[in-house]
Design goal:
Layout (H helix, E strand, L loop, with lengths): L2 H9 L12 H20 L4 H14 L7 H7 L7 H15 L5 H8 L10 H12 L7 H10 L4 H18 L6 H10 L2
The protein binds fe (ii) ion (2 copies).
The site of one fe (ii) ion has 4 residues, from loops.
Length: 189
C-alpha cells in the first residue's frame, strides 16, 4: 500500500455497530474496506452526506457475518442458501431495526454479496470495495490497480469487478442467484 493509503488505514475510525458479531479478522477486513472507501471519497471530493452513506454501508455490511446460525436465521428468516447469501439480508434487517433509514445504505448491505440492479452508487461502490480491499491474497497487483482507478472511472471498474467476481465464483463452481445474473447482464450490457 502507498504511504497515503497506509495513513488512511491507520486513521479510519472504527464504525462497527455495537451489535456486530465479528471475528477480529473480519473486523480487520471491514476496516480495510472502510479505509479504501475513505480514500475514494476524498479523491472524488464527494459531498459529506454521500461519503457518510458509503461509509455506513461499509461498516454495517458484514456486521453479522460471524453470527451463530440461529442469530442469522432470526434476522433473515425467509432467506435460504449458504451464509454468503444470508449475512447481507440479516445485517440489513438488523440495521433497519437499529434506526438506519436510508434505502441506498440498506440495499447496499442487503445485496452486497449478490449484486442488485436497483442499486445507486452506495451499493455499487461497496460491491467494488469489498472485492478490491488489499487484504485478499489473490490478484493483488491487478486489484490494486483497479482500486487506484476507481475514483476516475467507477463504472469501468465496476464492469471489471463484476467480470472478476463471476470468474472467481465459476472456478469454484458456485451457483449464481438470479439477482446476480440480472446485475451482471445490466452492468456488462
Ligand atoms: Fe459479506
Ligand atoms: Fe465484506
Amino acid at each position: 500500500m502507498t504511504g497515503q493509503g497506509a495513513e488512511l488505514l491507520r486513521s479510519a475510525p472504527d464504525g462497527m455497530p455495537p451489535w456486530a458479531i465479528v471475528t477480529p479478522r473480519r473486523r480487520a477486513h471491514v476496516g480495510r474496506v472502510a479505509a479504501l472507501v475513505t480514500q475514494w471519497t476524498v479523491a472524488m471530493r464527494l459531498p459529506a452526506e454521500e461519503s457518510r452513506r458509503w461509509l455506513r454501508a461499509v461498516w454495517l455490511h458484514d456486521a453479522l457475518r460471524d453470527a451463530p446460525e440461529a442469530e442469522m436465521r432470526r434476522w433473515a428468516p425467509g432467506v435460504e442458501g449458504p451464509v454468503e447469501l444470508r449475512h447481507g439480508p440479516a445485517a440489513a434487517a438488523r440495521a433497519e431495526l437499529e434506526g438506519e433509514r436510508d434505502e441506498d445504505v440498506l440495499s447496499a448491505i442487503r445485496w452486497h454479496s449478490v449484486g442488485w440492479n436497483g442499486w445507486a452508487e452506495t451499493g455499487r461502490t461497496l460491491y467494488c470495495a469489498d472485492f478490491l480491499e488489499p487484504g485478499r491474497d489473490f490478484d493483488r497487483d491487478e486489484r490494486a490497480a483497479l482500486a487506484t482507478r476507481f475514483p476516475d472511472d467507477p463504472a469501468g471498474v465496476l464492469r471489471d469487478v463484476v467480470r472478476r467476481r463471476f470468474t472467481y465464483a465459476d472456478t469454484r463452481r458456485w451457483s449464481h442467484p438470479p439477482e446476480s445474473i440480472a446485475f451482471r447482464d445490466e452492468v456488462l450490457r
